[in-house]
Design goal:
The chain is α+β, with helices and mostly antiparallel strands. The protein is 13% helix and 21% strand.
């Protein structure tokens, strides 16, 4: 993914207006200490930890529509 860090820093979650973080191989949930989470199916996502939503990035364009987001939920629930 080639989203510039400057652009990511000005993006906000359309639902809560909180910060978004680019998904990485080490998921946000693992860094937060949650070990039983389902892995992200695609690395090209922006995550909102507050809303527990993942917004897709398609062709280097973030899809910041609530309808396009998928829930970030721990597995086993």
């Amino acid at each position: 993914m080639s989203l510039d860090a400057t652009w990511v820093s000005v993006l906000a979650c359309p639902r809560c207006k909180g910060p978004l973080t680019v998904a990485s191989p080490l998921s946000l949930w693992e860094r937060a200490g949650v070990r039983d989470c389902a892995p992200s199916p695609a690395p090209d996502e922006l995550h909102c930890v507050t809303c527990r939503l993942a917004y897709p990035i398609r062709e280097d364009v973030p899809e910041l529509l609530h309808e396009e987001a998928r829930p970030l939920v721990p597995s086993g629930r």
